[in-house]
C-alpha cells in the first residue's frame, strides 16, 4: 500500500462512530483529512480534535468542496455516511427513498465526480462502509438490508471495472459496532448485533490491515466469512437459520 502520509482523505459521516474513528486513524497516520457530516457541530469538533478540516453538509455533494479544501486532489474517499432503517416492506416510501439515497446513491455520486481525475492519474482509493447486512441480511430492517446490498454491489462493480486502471476499492462489512446506529437497530440489534459488538477503532484497524494488502473485502468481525460462505453454499439452510432467528426475535417483542 502506498503511504497515507500527506494523502488527501475525505471521510463522510465522520461526526461520530465509525467515520470519526476512520478520520482519527488517517490523521494519526499523517494524512490531510476532511471531516464531513450533516451535523456541522460534530464535524467541527472532530476536525478540531485531529487537526483536520471540517466540510459539513450532504455526503452526496461534498466532493468538490472537499477537493478544494485539500488543494485540488482527493487521494482516498471514505463513503461512510449511512442511515439505519428499521421496517418491513410496509415501511413508508420516504424511508426507503432516504435509505437508497444515502446508502447507495451518495456513493454513486461521489464516484462519478472522483473517477475522472483518478483514472487520468492511474490511482485512487474508494472506501465503502457497507455492513455485514450487505453480505448477509438483517432481521427487522428491510430498507437497511436492501440498500446495503446495493452499496456492496456498487463497490464490487467499481473494483471489477476499474482495478486495472489503478483504482483500489475496499468494502468494509462489520457486524455490530458500538455506535448510535446500533441503538437505532432496536431490539433486533440487541439480539443479533450487541453481543459481539466491537469498538469503532477496531473497524479502522481492520481497514488499515486490509489496505496494506490491497484487499477488497474488509471483515472486522471473525466469523463473517464463514456465514457468507454458508449463505452461498447452502442458501436454504441459511434462510432456515435466519428465519429461526426472526422467530426468536418475534417471541421477545
UniProtKB/TrEMBL annotation:
List the keywords (alphabetical). Oxidoreductase
> What GO molecular functions are on record for this protein?
oxidoreductase activity
**Which InterPro entries does its entry note?**
NAD(P)-bd_dom_sf, Sc_DH/Rdtase_CS, SDR_fam
What top-level branch of life does the organism fall under?
Answer: Bacteria
Give the matching PANTHER family: 5-KETO-D-GLUCONATE 5-REDUCTASE, ALCOHOL DEHYDROGENASE, PUTATIVE (AFU_ORTHOLOGUE AFUA_3G03445)-RELATED
Give the UniProt family note. Belongs to the short-chain dehydrogenases/reductases (SDR) family.
Protein name, entry field: Dehydrogenase
Q: Which organism encodes this protein?
A: Streptomyces tsukubensis
Amino acid at each position: 500500500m502506498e503511504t497515507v502520509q500527506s494523502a488527501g482523505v475525505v471521510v463522510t459521516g465522520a461526526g461520530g462512530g465509525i467515520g470519526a474513528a476512520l478520520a482519527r486513524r488517517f490523521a494519526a497516520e499523517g494524512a490531510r483529512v476532511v471531516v464531513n457530516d450533516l451535523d456541522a457541530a460534530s464535524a467541527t469538533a472532530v476536525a478540531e480534535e485531529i487537526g483536520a478540516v471540517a466540510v459539513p453538509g450532504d455526503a452526496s455533494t461534498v466532493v468538490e468542496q472537499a477537493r478544494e479544501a485539500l488543494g485540488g486532489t482527493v487521494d482516498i474517499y471514505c463513503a461512510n455516511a449511512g442511515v439505519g432503517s428499521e421496517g418491513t416492506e410496509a415501511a413508508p416510501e420516504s424511508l426507503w427513498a432516504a435509505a437508497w439515497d444515502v446508502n447507495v446513491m451518495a456513493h454513486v455520486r461521489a464516484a462519478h465526480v472522483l473517477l475522472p481525475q483518478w483514472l487520468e492519474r492511474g490511482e485512487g482509493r474508494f472506501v465503502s462502509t457497507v455492513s455485514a447486512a450487505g453480505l448477509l441480511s438483517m432481521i427487522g430492517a428491510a430498507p437497511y438490508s436492501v440498500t446495503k446490498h446495493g452499496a456492496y454491489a456498487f463497490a464490487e462493480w467499481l473494483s471489477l471495472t476499474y482495478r486495472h486502471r489503478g483504482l483500489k476499492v475496499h468494502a468494509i462489512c462489520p457486524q455490530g459496532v458500538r455506535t448510535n446506529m446500533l441503538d437505532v437497530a432496536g431490539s433486533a440489534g440487541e439480539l443479533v448485533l450487541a453481543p459481539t459488538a466491537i469498538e469503532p477503532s477496531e473497524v479502522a484497524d481492520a481497514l488499515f490491515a486490509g489496505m496494506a494488502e490491497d484487499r477488497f473485502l474488509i471483515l472486522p468481525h471473525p466469523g463473517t466469512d464463514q456465514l457468507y460462505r454458508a449463505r452461498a453454499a447452502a442458501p436454504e439452510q441459511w434462510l432456515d437459520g435466519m428465519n429461526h432467528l426472526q422467530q426468536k426475535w418475534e417471541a421477545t417483542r
